[in-house]
Amino acid sequence: MQNILGQSHAIETLQGTLKSGRLHHAWIFSGPRGVGKFTTALEFARILLDPEAQPNLAGQIDSDPSSETSKLIEAGSHPDLHIIRKELALFSDNPMLRSRKLMNIPLDLLREHMLGGRTSDDRRHEAAAYRTPKLGHRKVFIVDEAELIDKNGQNSMLKTLEEPPAQTFLILVSSRGERLLPTIRSRCQHVRFHRLDLNDMEAWFNRSELGVDEDERKWLLRFADGSPGQAHLAAEFRFYEWRRILNPMIAQLEKGNYPSDMGKAMAELIKGFSEAWVKSRKNASKDAANKDGARHLFSLLASYARARLQGLADDEMMVEHFASLIELIREAELQLDFNVNARHVLDNLVVQWSRLGALTPA
Predict the structure, then answer these.
(1) Which of 50, 164, 269, 356 could form a disulfide linkage to 25, CB 3.0–4.6 angstroms apart?
(2) Domain range for 119
(3) Facing residues of 191 across strands?
(4) Is 228 exposed, middle or buried (0-12, 13-18, 19+ CB in 10 A)?
(5) pLDDT band at 330; cut points 50, 70, 90
(6) Do 184 and 157 form a contact (C-beta atoms < 8 A)?
């Protein structure tokens, strides 16, 4: 865990509970995307599953990288580590699950991989959470993007949270912790993760070997806003090039003009991201990739607005302009969450942005 950057409070919380021996059975790891939540969950699981985990030279409870537990986890074959993601639906024997658009984590998926019970295809599944650990020590379930668990699924988890199986641990990893029901949150130990500061981001860049030039590195630092995962993604999918494509249209908006082709240009960028994501990620969902691509584009526009806001404290009109722009971007994101047609959302955003007027008088 000592290699996880910028999350000292979270690590201290987890190490404290490990050293005390009073381990809570259910956890929520929440915070922005790409700041180390899932990585920490996996390291925490490694320690929980290793019967030989012990204090290292730094005094932290740790699992030896050469231990059998670590080898199994690295190989993705530890029988008592269960990682639940929406993409598992693709491997289901249930045709209704396989045909879904992979936009959430439905109850049927939880029944198959954790909770047990009868699914919509009239099959009964044994509850994996209540099985004896296959290696005789502990079991850990990590649910990634736990905010995507539908309401029925969250309600069905309550019994397992209230009557936890022995030596079984559940970690809900979420970038939108507020979407988990209050009844779920109240039964879990909550660990909050934060954006990294500039020094930690610089340290991450030095480790990352992204191979970008100095101008792009500076831009990535601003765009990522303390999220190494976001920086890595932006470098991989060339968001710096997105910025170059959109800059002339943004310049038109700054003059109070309406760039009629901007909605189409943004849609093409999102489409390109989605196609590249599905091609590079096994079992990826195109629908989910389209939504993610739109969110990344909104993040890029918000990064532009935040950068322009810096140093404008004495210019009330400019502050109001960019604050209004950030609000427009938030509204676009909300519309996307409510499944409004993405192209309509993009076109409307450009129209509303143009109505904010020119930054300076003509």
Answers:
(1) 164
(2) 8-192
(3) 29
(4) buried
(5) very high
(6) yes
